[in-house]
Amino acid sequence: MADLDEQLSLRPIGLEVADRMEAAIVREVFAPGEKLRELDICARFGISRSPLREAFQVLEGRGLVERRPRLGTRVTEMSVENLDEITTCRIPLEATCSRLLASRDDHRAVATELEVPLVSMRHAYKRGDFVAGFEANVQMTALMHARCGNSVLQRLLDQLDKSALRYRFRAYRSATSVLDDMIEGNTAMVDAIRSGDGDRAAQVTADLVEKAWQTTRTLFLEST
């Protein structure tokens, strides 16, 4: 029975592959616009075409690949226009998320939870490890979404975040100041959530995402 329970708890192979490919796309191991050849990808991950096609479907839903009849599957291109569209949607939704967190009865406990990845970001900054800092920031964002108490908002934010990850990673990779700015802004946001001040939490979050957008936008234009 234990073996059966373990088997039932396993995630579908296609979803596992999608997550691994997402990480590679975010880090530009698979470059924007690159054609994803099924045989090569199958060999890389040791899978058959069926779960790979499931993975492609998941990644298409995340806005990371595009599939065209007779042309195959390619990594979605990156553009400043796409970044602008993503962030225009993220700003009010992320602000709403922070407002909801600050309004929870257990807002102090939520703030304490958020301190864990925030501490990891600080440690990463001291080590000069931008990848670890990026991953801790992603963890913090996902935790905020999961704790907001609104399943529709969580789903929308998670989808937008998937689309934004490549831009965020490139910004972290391009300038050490990005991690420092994220630490400062997220510290102020967590403090507002801990105090239960929804208006301040929302404003700090909106300002943080806005600043990150402008920095990421500038760095993206410089790198293209």
UniProtKB/TrEMBL annotation:
MF terms (GO), sorted A to Z: DNA binding; DNA-binding transcription factor activity
Coiled-coil region: none
Location of the HTH gntR-type domain: 11-78
SUPFAM superfamilies referenced in this protein's UniProt entry, alphabetically: GntR ligand-binding domain-like, Winged helix' DNA-binding domain
Superkingdom assignment: Bacteria
UniProt lineage: Bacteria, Pseudomonadati, Pseudomonadota, Alphaproteobacteria, Rhodobacterales
Xref: InterPro entries: GntR_C, TF_FadR/GntR_C, Tscrpt_reg_HTH_GntR, WH-like_DNA-bd_sf, WH_DNA-bd_sf
Name the record gives this protein: HTH gntR-type domain-containing protein
Keyword list, A-Z: DNA-binding, Transcription, Transcription regulation
Keyword Transcription: yes
